[in-house]
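User: Could you go from structure to sequence for me? I need the amino acid at each position, not a summary. Structure tokens:
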């Protein structure tokens, strides 16, 4: 199995990818430790984070293989190359840009491409996207996944937006292979108060809900 395939499996294994925006490397590392303690090991550091490439490099050095550190909000090939050089283990974009997919695959890294309409989603898949991030997913909800997957069940979809403790199971039941979870997991309040125990608690709860929803589907 290639490194890329192994990383895709890890992205889907627990069913949760934490989308993290933090003010500094130190804050993000504390958040990451709490997420890891709660069972969430896939962490997406968005390019909207201050000094994002430096934060990615710092986290990769700190956590090694304990965490699966990716770069989010990657918009073009230049950004993609920057995060690859920083050590990102996967690339996530809110858009479908074939150049990002091609560049990621040249170094055996998976790419999660953004798309919304059925045509965009299928085009992204045909272009080699390892997963397709349906964005903005929260505007349409889990029912949209059911509708899209009905004629195209081979698609590997993940939502970003609209995922919280009350909807996570619905997304899994609708066919999502993993969930991108941002402020519902790393809450602004917990981050401001440095309440890392709360982040760990939420991580455990999300992992439990996903596991139970998957078991119910079998």
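Assistant: Here is the amino acid at each position, in order:
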């Amino acid at each position: 199995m290639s490194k890329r395939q192994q990383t895709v499996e890890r992205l889907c294994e627990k069913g949760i990818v934490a989308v993290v925006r933090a003010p500094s490397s130190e804050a993000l590392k504390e958040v990451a430790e709490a997420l890891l303690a709660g069972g969430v090991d896939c962490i997406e550091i968005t390019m909207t984070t201050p000094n994002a490439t430096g934060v990615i490099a710092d986290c990769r050095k700190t956590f090694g293989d304990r965490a699966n550190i990716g770069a989010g909000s990657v918009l073009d090939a230049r950004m993609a190359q920057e995060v690859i050089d920083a050590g990102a283990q996967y690339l996530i974009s809110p858009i479908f840009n074939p150049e990002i997919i091609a560049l990621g695959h040249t170094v055996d890294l998976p790419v999660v491409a953004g798309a919304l309409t059925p045509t965009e989603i299928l085009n992204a898949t045909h272009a080699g996207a390892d997963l397709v991030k349906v964005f903005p997913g929260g505007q349409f909800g889990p029912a949209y996944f059911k509708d899209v997957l009905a004629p195209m069940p081979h698609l590997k979809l993940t939502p970003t937006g609209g995922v919280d403790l009350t909807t996570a199971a619905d997304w899994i039941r609708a066919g999502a292979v993993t969930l991108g979870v941002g402020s519902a997991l790393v809450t602004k309040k917990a981050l401001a108060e440095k309440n890392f125990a709360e982040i760990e608690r939420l991580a455990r709860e999300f992992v439990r809900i996903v596991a139970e929803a998957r078991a119910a589907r079998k």
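One structural detail worth keeping in mind: The mean pLDDT is 96.
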